[in-house]
What we know:
Bound molecules: adenosine-5'-triphosphate, magnesium ion
Largest interface: A-B, 20 and 25 residues
Oligomer: heterodimer
Number of helices of chain B: 10
Structural class of chain A: mainly alpha
Number of strands of chain A: 6
CATH class of chain B: Alpha Beta
CATH architecture of the largest domain in chain A: Orthogonal Bundle
Shape of chain B: globular
Largest sheet of chain B: 6 strands, mixed
Helix content of chain A: 55-70%
Shape of chain A: globular
Strand order of the largest sheet of chain B: 6-7-8-3-9-10
Number of strands of chain B: 10
Structural class of chain B: alpha/beta
Amino acid sequence: MVDFFSQIINGLAIGNVYALLAIGFALVFGVANLINFAQGSLFMLGGYLTFTGVSYLGLPLLPAALLGILLTTGIGVALDWACLRPIQRGPRIAPLLATLALAVIIDSTAELVWSPNTQGFPNPMADQAWTVGNAFISAVDLLILATGIVCIVSLTLFLKYTWTGRALRATAMDPEAAQQMGVNVAAMRTLTFGLAGLLGGIGGVLIGLYYQSIWPTMGIPFGLKGFTAALLGGISSIPGAIAGGLLLGIFESLTSGYLGSLYRNMVAYSLLLLVLFFRPQGLFGARGLDALGGAQAAAGMVPSTSLMASAFSPVTSRIYTLAGWPALAVLVLAVLYPFVADRTWEHIGTLAAIFSLLAVSLTVVAGSAGQISVGHAALFGVGAYTAALLGVACDLPIELLLVAAGTMGAIAAIACGVVAVRLSGHVIVMATLASGLILHSVFLSWIDVTRGPMGVRGIPPPSVGLLGGFSITDNAGHYWLSLAVLALALFLTGRLLQSNVGRTWRAIREDRLAAVAAGVPAVRYLLMAFAVSGFLAGAAGALYAHLLAFIAPGDFFILASFIVLTMVVLGGLGNLTGAVFGAVLLIVLTEVLREFGEFRMVAYGLVLLLAIMFRPNGLLGSK
Amino acid sequence: MSGDVVTIDHVDIFYGSVQALFDVSVRVAPGETVAVLGGNASGKSTTIKTVLGLVQARRGSVRVLGRDIRGLATSQVAALGVGSIPEGRRVFPEMTVHENLLMGAYLRRNEGRRRLEQATEEALALFPDLRERFGQLAGTLSGGEQQMLAMARAWMRHPQLLCIDEPSMGLSPRFVERIYDAIAGLKARGVTILMVEQSATMALAVADRAYVLRSGHIAVEGEAAALANDPSIRRAYLGERAFTEKETDHV
Ligand SMILES: Nc1ncnc2c1ncn2[C@@H]1O[C@H](COP(=O)(O)OP(=O)(O)OP(=O)(O)O)[C@@H](O)[C@H]1O
Ligand SMILES: [Mg+2]
């Protein structure tokens, strides 16, 4: 029997960790005006560096933890110096994408260094626990509670009563005015990233103790929950972050206690979406989200979603696109490609075409309409599962399966879009991330339909209705099929982007307020962009499922979304030619780097980071 | 001149590709109160930002309190002895009045509690309205009270040079008078003041000298009293626009 009181204690303990992470988000958001995706990675590093100190250097736990936390603090500062500060004046979305890239780089480097497997974390007080009445209280719970409270109290006192703490708060409220008071805002920024690293590191150690294990991707769920907690509290408020963390911890602990731990993550992410939808200004009504347009959106006012085109971003001098005859020439060459390629390269060509389709899908919503989505692989997954399950169940031509997959993708995209279109800027990224993770957990846990982690096997080869049910079995056939779908999609999307609809999307992206003032029903147009994008992603999923004949939830995790995002940023958000170019480039790069398979994710992260730092408008420029 | 508190010397300022100031020169001598006047978007705030190091001159030089400020951060310029009352007050909304005052004294943080308490007491004596609001969040003050707080906050620093951007903005005539009384009080204490203002009458009454900006160019400069009494200047430059337009209509 689940004991209510134990669940509360447990929730408070975990909630303290969320609170530490949430404070990190809130500080960085306040001072640097950005949502720091790498916060979760710093958290993971705190755990791993401590683990290393104990297992490899033979240090006792406490000094190892102090050393690990100190290093994490330094890494937090270094990331800001090396990667974020240089792009402060770049496009508004650039720092966020950079922290995303950093998160991927750090997480995958951790997999390389410490292996992707879960590691045991030393816990000297593992079996100290007491029962008080019915409640079960462990020493770790108490340690987490005590550490959390000490951190929170000392941080609050620091911010309230010291010169530096006040200067930090002043900088968060109004950096220009703070400067005029003589505050060195660059130093405050360093301090902030240091504090975020410190709190993240402490959180990582505590969670390591709690679960007695650590794993390289642990930063993703905990980072997202820390963000949820910060958002609950109004994103830029420290007391709000603390309350949000504790509430989330208790809520999660109770649901997993009474409903089962399978629901733990799904409940937390759904809560995030609910808050974003109904109360983006947080439970306590702070105004922090205003900077990102969230609270205004909630109040019925519409924020501006200006993306790459914010004030300081110089318009790219040249935009490279292919259209008309040159495009046709490239198509002819692409059609002839199987005659020179071997079977492996035909397969790679097919993957390139499928991912091009996916990149085109993302560029419609992220580039043209300005709604950055990092949950895109989930829509791809919806299409793949639809086509796979229908294909396994009954004998249908691929045309029909493509339409069915596209339709399901569009429906899922609209569902995600309903939350996202009311938001803007960085918040939208979090919303789409949460949608993606929820869909991923559906793939994973709706075992009756999706067969869970086992995946769907034995997906039949596609049969083409137009060719009288001709069944495609060889690599060249798959390639031509995917190429045909891609060409059709490019043609139609190109027309769409040049039509009134495309112009309206760009108008909304550039200045949503002005567009709305001019009578444009922005929400309807943005949902349309999500639908088109979801359809294309779903179709790409269908091709993917039939190409590989086997799909599993892992194919549609955020890392896949991240790869597609990298492709699109490389091509210059909003540029169709660029999207295809980025996709082909990255798929070929993957093949070339096959020997270094494990380094692949690090390489993707680096590519994205460098692109953002040095070519924020992509290799081919954007419109 | 080298003895000046502020020397803006033939400066061009750009925001991206948009030029805001054209070959502007402004001087403020020790103890002087100088007003920069002009209509909306004439470049008044930009002039103040130039002195504070918030914008960098593409051409020309800026000297403040004996130092060329090229390359200095705004916080370093502040540390030279420059206090600022920014446009739109810019108090720290989620800090109390007391904390805002302490932020004003940030650069004196090593002087010890006693002297800061004394400075706070002085500031409250100058702006008595703030006394009963001492523990209130600054964001909940009225506009006029916020202006008082911004002035008191800048005064906490005991600056040698005080930069004021449009102190009368959005205030009722009665409050504007009180604000200008306070400025006159600071002037009487020997602070050097550079202020920009849209409504000329009050500013010219307190200033010793004045410049008039028009679309980023200095149109007129001279003794404040002379400018105030010259009807053609008043008409052409100092906001008596309706009048001028009517005249040109007839031409
Ligand atoms: N950050 C900025 N980016 C681009 N242009 C700017 C910026 N700040 C000011 N400008 C432009 O420079 C010009 C002068 O602006 P400034 O703020 O100095 O005017 P002002 O005289 O203070 O006007 P007001 O009376 O309205 O405060 C304006 O045309 C303005 O649009
Ligand atoms: Mg101004």
